[in-house]
Amino acid sequence: MTGLDYEYFRKFLRERSGLVLSADKHYLLESRLLPVARRAGLASLAGLVHRLRGIDCEALAAEVVEAMTTNESFFFRDKIPFEHFRDTIIPRLIAARNHRRRIRIWCAAASTGQEPYSLAMSIKEMGDRLSGWQIEIIATDISSEALRRARSGIYSQFEVQRGLPIMLLLKYFKQIGENWQIGPDIRAMVQFRVLNLISDFSRLGMFDLVFCRNVLIYFDQPTKISVLDRLAQNLDRDGYLVLGAAETVVGLTDSLKPVPDCRGLYAHSAAMKAPVLRIVAANPAA
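The structure corresponding to this sequence follows.
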């Protein structure tokens, strides 16, 4: 692969998915894209570049982006966001939404579904606290293959051992050969859709809570700013945004501010002045 070919792929991936490759990722790119080239009947990445420059290459372009997408996920990843969900976010939303008894949640970059299913199980575990409420979970990802796996709800023994408490495994999953499938009642709680975060997502509507974890780290700063500002526009004024442990809004947007004492949790800047938000955030057990 020539330097020009590598630069073409860097630009292509940034424009198509927001993914930023550093100058030293030749091996990663070759290992992931050579199989794509061979499936297309091409002998080299140079041939893949030539094909992508042509017309009628959308299917191949989507395959290239999907091959370069990192689909790392596991159940109840990092634990703290799910503690915030149970102890801070849901109590606050129950109080604020009691008149309409409806909560909309968006899991962006949902990968193979462990995150939205973790939220669905958490909601089930709350029992009567949300009885009679309409809870909508929308899960999106750029990868159609990842979402195909997510919809099936089938996971390997290794995948269910990563972060999933044995009690929840036995309660909500059924063993199928060497794999485990999450129950139909949990699967029915989540709607999966293909979506690219660098594209317009305003059509999804407004949300009370957005999980957008461990995806901004792959974007350059202008893309991070664009995504965060648009996420704020799709978030209710007293809603919440959850980011990954290595991500922040600080220095990127004035629309959102960190919630005190809740790492990784953010709210609209104007909402941070509301006394009830400060009380709930400072006393997660309330």
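Residues 276-286 have pLDDT under 50 and may be disordered.
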